[in-house]
Amino acid sequence: MRGDFTAAAVRRLAHGSRDAGQVRRLLSLAAIYGGGSRSAAALVGGVGLQTVRDWVLRFNRDGPDGLIDGKAPGGRPRLDASQRAALAAAVERGPIPAAHGVVRWRLVDLVQWVQDEFAVSISPQTLGRELRAMGYRKLSARPRHHAQEAETIPAFKKTSPPKWQRSGRRSRAAHP
């Protein structure tokens, strides 16, 4: 354990912290600084001996800040920067019907394109998230029937109701 801390100093740090996990770890280490065994520290923290050992190593290496939970790094991205740039160029360019077999890109088509182009297997959901992060949004035009006649559309459009007007009836008080 580091020699620049005491049990009281570690307890003060625990008292001033807002991170519950860090407080629990600091109190466990304060038990060790106070002369207790690592088994007692494990009971204070509610963990096993190996975990207390890991906390001690993190505390010795990084100090009290080493006991704060960091953000998990997550998985490795499926596409690198050059592949994302090529995907963006393909989306901007649009599909070539003769080459790609489609007239507009769908996610499943882009998944197949990525598989063919880069030999990377990616799900449609993940590719959709990637495209959304790149600033693309799913847009689709309103469907139009192939036999629609443009001149008949105005006849079926709903219009706003006319302004309210007083009816031609007179009130009873006006009639004797």
Automatic annotation (TrEMBL):
Annotated region (Disordered), positions in chain: 140-176
InterPro entries: Homeodomain-like_sf, Winged_HTH_dom
Record's compositionally biased regions (Basic residues): 166-176
Coiled-coil ranges from the UniProt annotation: none
Pfam families on file: HTH_29, HTH_33
Domain Winged helix-turn helix: 102-160
Protein's name in the database: Transposase
Organism (species): Sphingosinicella soli
